[in-house]
User: What shape does this take?
Amino acid sequence: MSRIVKKWTGEEASAPFLIRLLHKFRPRKASLKRQIGEVIYRLDVQMDKLDETLSRLRDRDKELLEKTVKAYIAKDFARATIYANEVAELRKMAKIVLASRLALEKVKVRLETIRELGDVAAVMAPIIPILRGLKSQLAGIIPEISIELEEITNSMNSMLMELGQVTSTALSSPMLTEEARKVLLEAQALAEEKIKENFPKIPPEIRVAIPERRVGVSLPGPTTFTPMRPTTQIRLSSKILEEKVLEYIRAHRGFIDINDCAQIFGVSRKDVLKALKVLEKKGKIKLRT
Assistant: This one.
């Protein structure tokens, strides 16, 4: 029985009695087939998380698009432009999430092929660069999934190293292979089509230039308008929120309504105030009440 077959099934070749006795008291490693089954399960969990994220993004997109149309009808062009820009950014994020979901599905199918046919090295090695690419792709959007993909990649590396089919140098290479690049590009193209099908188009007349007018709002005191918080929130990094707050201020010719800004970007009033303080510290704005 070959070394790979033995590791695949978890069987041991006939050995002297003393060695077999020692093996009984040593924890047995799971067979490769079982390890691959565990990896498939972990991938399923990550795909479920991506599905949940995509659902939240779709809900938020619908909410923002409705606000965009209402603001445009009310001739509040500055706000309509901000909402429309936010919809565009959200859809970029949705495209990355969906493309990652589709690529993981391909990886899962390949692993299922390995589990049935047992052609481990030939099929598993090309999967690792795909997972690395997805890990980098999701790092800035859903860090917890990115971390889990890194752990899954490490598990697969260990399996291949056990078989002695590849070197540690080859496994640690950060470069995307041609096959991995092709899989990721195909997933991106398919995701773009699905986003166009499932997300309504922004009416072209809403993509307007901001009129030359001032919007009188106060900072940072209380306002008479207290909007409801959005039902769906998308977590933004501090850097992205700072950029969006700065965009809001520019769109409103140097003025900001804290509550309105928080509602548009789906964050808390406290988050907006924190972003303002950071922007002031960086010298990008000067706060005045």
About this structure: The two ends are 80 Å apart (CA to CA).
